[in-house]
Amino acid sequence: MSPGPHRTGDFTRGRDGTAGDALVILPPGPTALLRALDRVFAGWGTAAGADEILPPPLYPVSDLEKFDVYANFPHLALAAAPLDLEHGGGKPEAGRFRPGDLRGARLGLPHATCYGAYLYYEDTRLPGDTLVTLVNRCFRHEDHYDGLRRLLSFQMREIVALGSFEHTQRVVTRFAEVIADFAGALGLPLDKQAATDPFFEADGARALLARLSPVKYEFQAGGLAIASVNTHRNFFGERCGIRLAPDGGHAFTSCVAFGLERWVAVLLDHHGRDAARALDAVERAAGEVS
Is residue 9 over pLDDT 80? Predict the structure, then answer.
């Protein structure tokens, strides 16, 4: 029998892949399932011509601030700071540090993976339509947590398109079809739902356009979003100075995102908590979808 959840401070760190609250340690079976899913999603990207890049797990606050993260998603934001050993005690009390123990928080923990792609191409001119894939730890300060379905720290695989608007739309259209085909091969019912993310200023032209024409679609299993396709127009191209050759206009971007732990949660539910059976289903379905 697996050991039960180990509670630390305000959070529960579950060891059975199902229990737990904000932070979860995956056991071997669900870990193998998550790795297999990531290989599938990354493989779709590389088969489409994507190069893989490896982002860091946190960024300077000044970088995330370029994307209005702290204006549009302040409720999700988490920051990291070094200890102030000169003025603070340097030791936690009751499982936490006091504000006076910390220096200024100049590092931010991202809540989405795709930021790394835009920062990678910052101040560059793309030679043409570009596709990259990357996976990262993401962090969200939610109002509640629910094991693998909603975590403080989780992994997100993304496929990111940069270039012409037509390129970004071909990518989201193509991968929306691939996601639906994969779910069908798994026998997993998914609902495609229009959704919103406040990437743009609420009173700006982009926000108005987003309300008129949805820029985000979620693929939901039992009401839980496990994947999404997202169109950003040239928001990130402008913020990072990513330009197109030869005309020098700002690049358009889009992304396809997969919440890996959420896929694991849904597939474990779908296969009666049997990780080995879920893994077999993923491997079979991957062979049917390209």
Answer: no
Asked whether residue 150 is assigned to any structural domain, the reply reads yes
Q: Whole-angstrom Cα distance, residue 287 to residue 290?
A: 8
Question: 104 lies in a domain?
Answer: yes
**Domain range holding 277?**
6-288
Region class of 52: left (phi > 0), else alpha (psi between -120 and 50), else beta: beta
Residue 246: cis peptide before it, omega within 30 degrees of 0: yes
Whether 89 is covered by a domain: the verdict is: yes
Asked whether the beta carbons of 160 and 117 are under 8 A apart, the reply is yes
Residue 1 lies in a domain: no
SS3 label, residue 130: strand
Count of CB atoms situated within 10 Å of the CB of 152: 18
CATH number at residue 225: 3.30.930.10
Confidence of residue 267 (pLDDT cuts 50, 70, 90): very high
